Amino acid sequence: MRQLRGQERVITANRQTSWAFADAFVAEDEALRWARDRARDMGLRSVSPGTGAALRLLAATADAKAVAEIGTGTGVSGIYLLNGMRPDGVLTTVDTEPERQQFAREAFRAAGFTNNRARFIPGRALDVLPRLADGGYDLVFCDGDRLESQEYLAESLRLLRPGGLVCFEGVFANGRTVDSAAQPHEVLRLRELLRTVREMQDELLPSLLPVGDGLLCAVRR
Fold it and tell me: Which residues form the signal peptide (predicted)?
């Protein structure tokens, strides 16, 4: 039994190394590095390169023309999403801080996207999302307030067309989601989200991707 535990430790170490390699696999251009620097200056956490690459892949696989993003930040995730979307696709991105969105505008321009490729809406997501069209989106990316994750899920199901994708960033919460120690309310809400998505088998086809800080994805059936 001791030998088995040792083997498990080796496998775990190898997996961690592999995940780190996968997360650094995608090279980022100057526009993405500029957006990351702005996020760092503002004390914001950006999606990892591995998470960004996964979002780009999912947007391309869905042939996404309309994507909604909760949490613009300084534009890192938006650039990845736009790179995966159709050339005529439009990203609708929501954030409570207009200053962040101004940085994202500059980052999108630097990445070569014209102004008509993105629609910036300042405000609280739960105030903005009800105004968006039912079934009008191919992908919804949620990187906002973790305490509101269940509400984001409900709005996403309304917004998505059949076959559309919803994605939640940061569901590992730096390992706290699977930690048995007492956790803050936002982590408990993430656990509730994971349970809810897993149990909605009639409506969703889920997958939990070990990129960045955890990317929970589900296809609306």
Answer: none
Tell me how crowded residue 176 is: count the other CB atoms within 10 A of its CB: 15
Distance between CA atoms of residues 158 and 32, nearest Å = 31
Angle at 111 between CA 29 and CA 83, to 5 degrees: 85
pTM summary value:
0.92
pLDDT tens digits, residue range 149-172?
A: 999 999 999 999 999 999 999 999
Q: 202: which 2 tokens?
A: 């009639």
Residues 79/108, Cβ–Cβ less than 8 Å: yes
Structure tokens, 23: 């997360």
User: Locate tokens 């269940």: which residue?
Assistant: 150
Pairing of strands 118-122, 137-142: unpaired
